[in-house]
Amino acid sequence: MQDYEIIEFIDQIEYIKEFLTLPKRLYKKREIMQNEEEENQILKNRHILSKYFKVHKFLVLNKRKKAVARAIVTFYENDEKAYIGFFECVKDYNISNYFLDYIERFVKRNGYNGIIGPLNCSFWIGYRFKVDNYNRPYFGEPYNKDYYPIMFEKAGFNILQEYSSNIFSRVNKDQENRIYTNRLKSLKEKGYEFIEPNEDTFYEQLIQIGKMILDLYSKFPAYKSISEEDFFQMYKDLKKIVDYSMIKIAYYNNQMVGFFISIPNYRNYINRKKYISALIQKMMKKEYILMYLGVDKDHLGLGRALAEEIKEELKKKRSTSIGALIKKGNANSVYFKELITKEYKYVLYEKNFK
User: Fold this and answer.
1) CATH second-level architecture of 167-348?
2) pTM
């Protein structure tokens, strides 16, 4: 395309600026989910996870040297697939086809037999496209322009995995699911303890949760292992924004065997730092994102009891909630089924060359 050029850059300031600026041109203020500080760390190879992968940074520039598309291609040693993430593009399918075809040829030249995406360098940083119900994003939601999935499909990508988020109504005082309440009662009678973290115990329990997550999530598509210390460093700042009453941890014989972590819905304000202190108290308890659920494989059935503990808290707070980013087919996709008012859908794509 004569009016555009694709460049791979390293650390040139003007290109880093264009990479970081493009989302601001594409999204309304209430929609943008960009974490500019994190992107800047990745572009400069300073992110805590940068040691695990190698990145190649690309821009499509117009004649005025302004970015009209961007992406990062990530390579892992001993992996047959490459990953494409941080993808943004103006609504022009000629540009996206031109760009994604270039990326494909680049990946092939480097000896990989396929591309998975969108994945922002790491499973732990962000992945997936939203494919419906575009409105104002919730905290932690992958959010993109509605035409991005079409761009990937036009470029020959196929769906690798589907996900959904369940939007729940408020829990009425008289609402009860006897299966869940009986499960919780039975487990307590058997010696299971259900507790909440506090200011003093949060970090210690986060380390234990990390050990479980690194094992439980290992079968997820595009998963890459990281060290327990790096997990802790990635998630320790949750302490600043959590509501301890909405984190439930299950113990049996003094061993952690399950957890359910929910976070207040801060929408996209967390990345707009000057607003954080004022908004944390304002937005706390209005709506919660049910984000992370894990149960030790020897304690199956515990998930329902943890879900009941969370539901009782939601009932007390009179809060709505969102069951976020559940892999299609997971058992927890049926939790609170009677409360579901809407479902949001997401996909992860793959393109194989052989």
Assistant:
1) 3-Layer(aba) Sandwich (3.40)
2) 0.94
